[in-house]
Amino acid sequence: MLLPETWAAIRVAHANRLQSSMNLTLGSALATIGLTVPVVVVCGTAYDFPPVLGLDPKEIVLLATALVVSVVTLGTGRTSMMQGAVHLVLFANYLFLACVP
Which of 21, 77, 91, 94 could form a cystine bridge with 12, CB 3.0-4.6 A? Predict the structure, then answer.
């Protein structure tokens, strides 16, 4: 579902238009999540199946931490290399926890 937007974002990034590439990427991801989650909740409610996020408690904590860090990072309008490094550390932590439960 994200393939056309991803392909367009890659082409725009190769044309050295990073802002347009980020807008395409974030917009398509937000639209997909914004449409998928409500449909799953409505279908689950209609068929009497409660929706389950499917995350362990440690993964929920990691997700919440990533969301808080993202809000702090993107809320100011400008980012630094240190904030990018924090995101990379969170991603490395996710990979480690995925491989070594």
Answer: 21
Asked whether residue 7 falls in the same domain as residue 30, the answer is yes
Residues with Cβ within 8 Å of residue 32, at least 6 apart in sequence: 1, 2
Task: Tell me, yes or no, whether 2 and 48 share the same domain.
Answer: yes
pTM (predicted TM-score): 0.53
Tens of pLDDT, residue by residue over 38-82, are 888 899 889 988 877 787 888 888 888 988 998 888 887 787 889
- Asked whether residue 67 falls in the same domain as residue 92, the answer is yes
Q: Residue 23 belongs to what domain range?
A: 1-52
Residues 68 and 81: their CA atoms lie apart, in Å, by: 17
Q: What percent of the chain has pLDDT over 70?
A: 96
Segment holding 82, helix H or strand E = helix 81-99
70 shares its domain with 48:
no
pLDDT at 26: 83
